[in-house]
Specification:
Elements lengths: L6 H33 L6 H27 L3 H7 L12 H14 L6 H11 L21 E14 L4 E23 L7 E24 L3 E3 L4 E3 L21 H20 L2 H4 L17 E12 L5 E11 L6 E13 L2 E8 L3
Antiparallel strand pairs: 1-2, 2-3, 3-4, 3-5, 6-7, 7-8, 8-9
Length: about 350
């Protein structure tokens, strides 16, 4: 049975409960303040050490990332080293160079007889020739008996000679013509039953075919950097041309004269002899034919003899005059030879047409 309390007792009970509630709240606040005070305390250097640890782990992670990437992919420098470098193109073997050489061939093989024709040819060639080269490009205009015009020219060989230089070989076909007087028999205007002799002029023509080497160089524009020359090709052959430097002239006059005397023998054979006979004075395996009679040897115009790389070897630079047996025209061409003395005789070990 529930006991009824008086008003005073009820009031005292409420006050007691309220006091107990306030005491409980006070205890909770004190505990919270104590815990906050405890958490807020940091020993000296705590924050710096904490920040240093964070930075260390960040840098360590980045280092691991970089190492991983390098293991998967090679470095850019290694990749570039592994890639082959692209060879720079020689301007002297481009289509424009071939066209330039072909235009030069047309002007070279166009000539006539007399001062006007010679002056006209000289003027046309001046647009092609480098300074210092003979104005007629080696053609002896005083020896001309025939006029010439180009019928056809075909590229047969293109040989690079280093930076922006090349030899371009053409098969050239030309027509040679000259005016001749012939004595013919014609009816006598006074007596038609009789015949009289009369001189009449007529044009004599013939065709010629040769291999012609055009030295083309490029330095801002195209030009012929040395005298052109004649050669003979068994189609597909190649002559290797190398440039020599730091050459020393031969000081022994006797040796120099002996080498120069040998040049007359060699070029006389080179002009007309078959390879079987030419091989007695020529041991260059890259040359399998001489001129095969397409030109006649006239003389060695001038030559310079230098010491070779080995004892008994000599490099010779020679300007040689040949004559066309059909037109009687004379041409000066340049040759470089590696001559070796073998006992009492000389042999051409390497024939490089031009430097």
């Amino acid at each position: 049975m529930k006991v009824k309390l008086s008003k005073e007792e009820k009031k005292a009970l409420r006050n007691q409960k309220m006091a107990a509630f306030k005491h409980r709240i006070s205890n909770l606040r004190a505990k919270d303040t104590k815990e906050k005070t405890k958490k807020a305390y940091r020993p000296p250097g705590y924050t710096a050490r904490k920040a240093g640890a964070v930075v260390f782990w960040i840098l360590f992670g980045l280092m691991l990332f970089v190492v991983g990437v390098n293991m998967v992919q090679p470095s850019s420098s290694t990749s570039q080293a592994a890639m082959p470098t692209e060879k720079e193109e020689n301007d002297s073997v481009k289509p424009e160079a071939l066209q330039f050489a072909e235009n030069f061939v047309k002007e070279y093989f166009t000539w006539g007889i007399g001062d006007d024709a010679n002056n006209g040819r000289q003027e046309r060639l001046s647009a092609y020739l480098a300074k210092g080269i003979d104005e007629q490009a080696g053609l002896d205009v005083d020896s001309l008996e025939y006029s010439s015009k180009l019928l056809d020219s075909e590229v047969r060989k293109v040989e690079e000679l280093g930076e922006n230089k090349a030899y371009i070989t053409f098969l050239v076909k030309q027509e040679l013509s000259k005016t001749v007087e012939k004595e013919v028999e014609v009816p006598d205007p006074k007596d038609k039953k009789k015949k009289i002799k009369k001189k009449e002029k007529e044009t004599e023509t013939k065709q010629s075919q040769k291999y012609f080497v055009v030295p083309v160089g490029f330095e801002g524009n195209y030009g012929i950097y040395e005298l052109p020359k004649f050669t003979f090709l068994n189609e597909g052959t190649q002559l290797e041309v190398k440039s020599e430097t730091d050459l020393k002239p031969v000081s022994d006059n006797g040796v120099e004269q002996s080498v120069k005397d040998f040049l007359n023998t060699f070029f006389g054979s080179y002009a007309v002899d078959p390879i079987e006979k030419l091989s007695y004075v020529l041991e260059d395996p890259s040359v399998n034919s001489g001129l095969n009679g397409s030109l006649e040897f006239v003389e060695v115009k001038d030559s310079k003899v230098y010491l070779g790389k080995k004892d008994g070897q000599y490099q010779v630079n020679a300007n040689v005059i040949f004559k066309d047996p059909e037109s009687q025209s004379q041409f000066t061409t340049e040759y470089t030879l590696l001559v070796e003395q073998q006992g009492s005789r000389f042999t051409v070990m390497k024939l490089n047409e031009g430097n």
